[in-house]
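ugh ok fine here u go
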Amino acid sequence: MIEMDDQQPYIIKVKEPRSKIRIFFIETAKFLAIFLFFFSLSAIFVMWPTIYANVSYYFTDSDNNLGLPTSSVDYASIAPIIEERKITIPEGTRLVIPKISVDAPIIFMQSSSNQDILETIKEGIAHYAGTAMPGRIGNMFVTGHSSFYWWNGGKYNQIFALLNRLSANDLVYVYHNGGMYVYKVRDSIIVKPSQTEVLNPTSTPTLSIMTCTPIGTNLKRLIVRADLISTPLVDYDKLQQFTDIPKIPIILPLD
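structure:
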């Protein structure tokens, strides 16, 4: 392009065209900015319940609505609190984690099919077929969603959105057959879906709670492990039922 210089009319300036590389980077940057904007909006739309749960966790009073202690080193100090607050035992089998406001039914699976598990956890928390029953010697293995499409139905699509907030000594309660079993968190681990050894039976009463991680993906599994510290009285005739042998699947269920 040629143009005349107003100050020096006899001098002709030649304006060089923009570099093609420069134009390419500018257009690419514009595209990425637009893409990231709409991607972020889509992610917020899909993950809103999970995002809300994680944000509200920091603004929620540490005292939970369930009336149960959230953590303890010695269960002996918890028993008087439960008695004083007159905690009632609900019907059926439920998993309660006061620290992260979890209160959901446990559904006992007869199948280890991944599709069956995905259908089951729409209605609560799935107890993996063949693993130990509440309070019994062995590995009681349960699983639930950390995140799922909120429009897909199901009341428990984000039941374990805050499972990663649990730490050692936090308490987990299992209501079963009119009794209350109290577990104390030992640790948490992250494993690959192929690491089925996490389902192996244990020599002591153990509770394993599994969900997918990172939230919004099913790449790996977060497993919180807890040890039984209190159990209701059991009839002598039922003691022989305290050992269960689990059926090990080929791959851990998808969340």
